[in-house]
Amino acid sequence: MTQKIALTGARIFDGHAYHDDSALLLADGIIAGVVLNDEVPAGFGHILLAGGLLAPVSGVLPTVGAAYVAKAFITVISGGTAILAGTAAASSLFGSVNQLLTYFTTPVIGEAGLLAAAILLLRVLPHGITGKLFRGSL
């Protein structure tokens, strides 16, 4: 039995152009085509993706979130014991360092500067930005 699915409600990028108000047709997990939402053939089950972007320009891989998880971990650890205030302070600091260095040099230097700032901050303040100020508070 062939499983037929129509993914709708997302912006589809086919490598050349974006398709709005279109459906991605899958037959047994293989792309069968892209058609307008009104032209989905009978027999296809509909899955609404609610405003997503299918196959973004950066690509979809199992490792796509690793860089974000690493930055989030560094930010939370560097924030210290005050959960909200520390995370806000660390994200402001690291975001500013990253964007300023990226603006004036390259994105690679920006990422390296963020890592250097985190190492320096944790070397100078081992308990994080709010380690001594807001011990145990939000």
Question: What would you note in describing this structure?
Answer:
The protein folds into two domains: 4-54, Urease, subunit C, domain 1; 66-124, no CATH class. The chain contains three helices and seven strands, in the order βββββββααα. It has helices at residues 66-79, 83-104, 107-124; strands at residues 4-8, 11-13, 18-19, 22-27, 30-36, 45-48, 53-54. A four-stranded mixed sheet has the order 5-4-1-6, with no helix packed on it. A three-stranded mixed sheet has the order 3-2-7, with no helix packed on it. Helix 2 (83-104) runs antiparallel to helix 3 (107-124).
Main sheet summary: 4 strands, mixed
Got a strand count?
A: 7
Q: pLDDT average, as an integer?
A: 84
Shape: elongated
Task: Return Rg in Å.
Answer: 22 Å
Tell me the strand order in the biggest sheet: 5-4-1-6
Tally of alpha and pi helices: 3
Q: Which class best fits the helix and strand makeup?
A: alpha/beta
- The total tally of domains equals 2
DSSP strand content? 15-25%
Question: Which residues form runs of ≥5 with pLDDT under 50?
Answer: none
Distance between the terminal alpha carbons, to the nearest Å?
55 Å
Order of helices and strands: EEEEEEEHHH
The residue fraction in helices comes out at: 25-40%
